[in-house]
Specification:
Helix content is 72%, strand content 0%. By secondary structure, it is an all-alpha fold. Among the domains are: 297 residues, no CATH class; 101 residues, Alpha Horseshoe (Serine Threonine Protein Phosphatase 5, Tetratricopeptide repeat). The longest helix has 28 residues.
Length: 703
């Protein structure tokens, strides 16, 4: 009877964890890609072509993955996800949540296996599942390495204790294979053999070191770790200078480690102020009160290891062991990041689950004199978990898109947190995306003052100047960025775009050739070369470039569009139509290719087919500024100025940087007698693309 009741409680607990995950995270399923997702996923053309996958295991890894350390499992996942889902963020978010849920269920399973109560196991799994302090690992696709790292850490952990006392050779093979995969996901799993030994000692009274453990766990684990470290530091590595210690050297780092420890602990207990990036001021004197208090707290924490029940103490030790790599004893750039807590948070969750579920509540229940106190405690604990869940849901909304993310940070973090270059750059990016160049400039200049060697800041400043029409200022910023980092490809493209605006095709081509010297398979460079060839009238060369891109990346939408454009410039409309139709066949539902097909029919003066092609696109994407602009252009050609104006104005309200849309609006205004509005529209068009001599003629005629 008791066995069947326990089995029911286990199954019901699993059901509750799954339901909780759906309730807590379902809102995030509809979030966009945010923060580092753009660099690692959206703007990373390499993942679009499965032929690039083997390059993850060569020196090209850092180019293909956009990462700075060798962690191939997460980029490998993104390759497969892109092949399955394209760039539909819903599915990526679902995958991340499912992985986090599996990790929570494995924690639950582990505690059941080592004979903790169902309540303790459930509370531990629940605490880990809804902990807001580690939620960015789930909300941001580029942090997937933490999910994989812990998953491959927990699988052999659960396997080892599931077969405790009846181990087989196959089990150890699987165990160490998973350990290797955990390391290939993220190096945080490197303590796995030590943790196995500690938990075996704590739960089964085993010696920490004996012959069987050495031969089955420690020695194979040491060989696995050594193999990983050899690959990581000698085979596939990025030769760059290590991050420096702060001013004052390692001494300053050491006296601040307890402060870092208690900052992380405070995030787990009080996850209210959360942010995608942290500024953590290091104190230079050990006599500062916060430093002394944190040293005292650390001493008390270590003392507790000897006073707590061993089954609790081992999880405090688990937390501290996995804090060691993120303590900045070895500097790696960031001092604090929520995602660094993912492994340590497991120790915290298990400690809390055992303390509440196996010690605190059972003692209250057995003391009938404290029945009221027991009920109040249960309600209080339930309330705490509800608050954590609400905070998690709100945090998911913060990650809805970049605008929400950085607006929330700007609103909520302390002022001194904003004195960090990465904060300021991202605040600037939010305003740049809104077209608020003055505010973007303010943040970028402040970031440059804080970090005058940040290439991204100079690149973004150049983009602002370029969009404002200050081309020489833009050029100087781009050149400054390249003087700091001659291999910063983003700036090559920014400067290339500037040269294209100035019609300096030779200089633009030279830059793209340099990009290809750095990265011979860079699709964007080939795309830009194709555009340059078309601008020169060498349309066949442009087509050859685009075909080369399609051999590298058969799902490159821009290649189909640019190839069709070159054919249309050669008046070969049939081939242009064929290439676009083949693109739609290769990438069903592609918005950009269908828009281009509608534009082609517009050029061919087949207005009805053009309208029939664009209408479904607008229906599916009512806020797509490009689709609305093309629809407006078709109505304009058909003489329907009312519908044309409605579509164009809606498009321009979402994206004002469309010179052709402003040009058409100018014609509509001119033909309806609104000369001042026509002049304003044409001047706006010229501000975005000055290479339009026909508009200058129209402006003269207005006078």
């Amino acid at each position: 009877m008791n066995c069947s009741r326990t089995l029911f409680r286990i199954r019901f607990s699993v059901f509750l964890l799954i339901v909780t995950a759906v309730v807590a995270y379902s809102g995030s399923f509809f979030n966009e890609f945010t923060f580092d997702d753009h660099m690692v996923l959206i703007y990373n053309h390499y993942i679009k072509n499965f032929a690039n996958l083997p390059r993850l295991f060569t020196d090209d890894y850092f180019i293909v993955s956009k990462e700075r350390t060798f962690r191939p499992i997460a980029p490998l996942t993104l390759f497969f996800e892109y092949q399955l889902f394209g760039f539909k963020p819903f599915y990526y978010h679902v995958v991340s949540v499912v992985m986090h849920l599996i990790n929570s269920l494995l924690i639950f399973r582990l505690l059941i296996i080592v004979r903790h109560g169902v309540s303790a196991a459930f509370l531990a799994g629940l605490m880990f599942l809804i902990q807001p302090a580690i939620s960015e690992v789930t909300f941001n696709m580029s942090y997937m390495e933490d999910l994989w790292g812990l998953l491959f850490f927990l699988i052999p952990f659960v396997l080892y204790f599931s077969f405790y006392g009846r181990h087989r050779v196959w089990m150890f093979v699987v165990m160490h294979a998973c350990y290797f995969l955990s390391l290939m996901s993220k190096e945080m799993g490197i303590f796995f053999p030590a943790v196995i030994g500690l938990v075996s000692w704590a739960y089964y009274g085993e010696k920490l070191i004996d012959r069987k453990k050495v031969l089955r766990v420690y020695l194979p684990g040491f060989i696995t770790a050594a193999l990983y470290l050899y690959i990581r530091f000698f085979v596939i590595y990025l030769p760059e200078k290590a991050a420096p210690y702060p001013e004052g050297g390692i001494f300053v780092t050491l006296i601040n480690i307890p402060r870092i420890l208690f900052h992380y602990i405070s995030l787990l207990f009080y996850p209210i102020i959360l942010t995608a990036d942290y500024e953590f001021a290091l104190y230079g004197s050990p006599l500062r009160l916060p430093v002394l208090l944190c040293f005292a707290g650390t001493a008390l924490l270590i003392y507790s290891l000897f006073k707590l029940p061993v089954r609790l103490a081992v999880w405090v030790l688990f937390f501290l062991i996995h804090f060691a790599p993120i303590s900045t004893i070895y500097p790696f750039g960031n001092t604090i990041a929520e995602r660094y807590l993912y492994f340590s948070a497991m120790g915290f969750a298990v400690f809390a689950g055992i303390l509440i579920g196996d010690i605190f509540l059972p003692r209250l229940k057995t003391d009938h004199r404290k029945k009221v106190y027991c009920n109040v405690s249960i309600y209080g604990i339930t309330f705490i978990f509800i608050i954590l869940m609400i905070r998690l849901i709100v945090r998911g909304y913060d990650w809805k898109d970049d605008d929400h993310l950085w607006t929330a940070i700007e609103r909520s973090v302390p002022k001194n947190f904003k004195n960090k270059a990465t904060f300021l750059v991202n605040f600037g990016n939010v305003h740049l995306s809104k077209g608020d160049y003055q505010k973007a400039m303010k943040y970028y200049l402040a970031a440059r003052d804080l970090n005058p060697y940040n290439t991204g800041v100079y690149n973004n400043l150049g983009i602002v100047y370029m969009r404002q029409g200050h081309y020489e200022l833009a050029k100087s910023e781009f050149i400054q960025a390249l003087s700091i980092d001659p291999q910063f490809l983003d700036t090559y493209f920014s400067l290339g775009n500037l040269y294209l605006l100035q019609n300096n095709l030779n200089a633009a081509e030279e830059l793209m050739r340099k990009v290809l010297e750095i990265d011979p398979q860079n699709v964007q460079a080939y795309t830009n070369l194709g555009v340059i060839m078309s601008r020169r009238g060498s349309h066949q060369q442009s087509i050859d470039n685009m075909m080369r891109i399609l051999r590298i990346d058969p799902k490159n939408e821009n290649a189909y569009v640019n190839c069709a454009y070159a054919y249309s410039e050669m008046k070969d409309y049939k081939k242009a139509e064929m290439i676009l139709q083949s693109g739609i066949h290769e990438i069903p539902g592609s918005t950009i290719i269908r828009i281009s097909l509608a534009q082609l029919y517009l050029i061919m003066t087949d207005y009805k087919t053009a309208l029939d092609t664009i209408m479904p696109v607008v229906a599916e994407n009512p806020n797509d500024s490009a689709a609305l602009a093309v629809q407006g252009g078709i109505y304009f050609r058909m003489g329907d100025y009312d519908n044309a104006q409605a579509g164009l104005l809606k498009s321009l309200s979402m994206n004002p940087e469309q010179p052709s849309a402003w040009y058409i609006m100018g014609i509509i205004y001119a033909e309806t007698g609104k000369k001042n509005l026509a002049r304003a529209a044409w001047e706006k068009s010229l501000s975005y693309n000055p290479n339009q001599p026909h508009i200058h003629d129209y402006l003269k005629n207005l006078e």
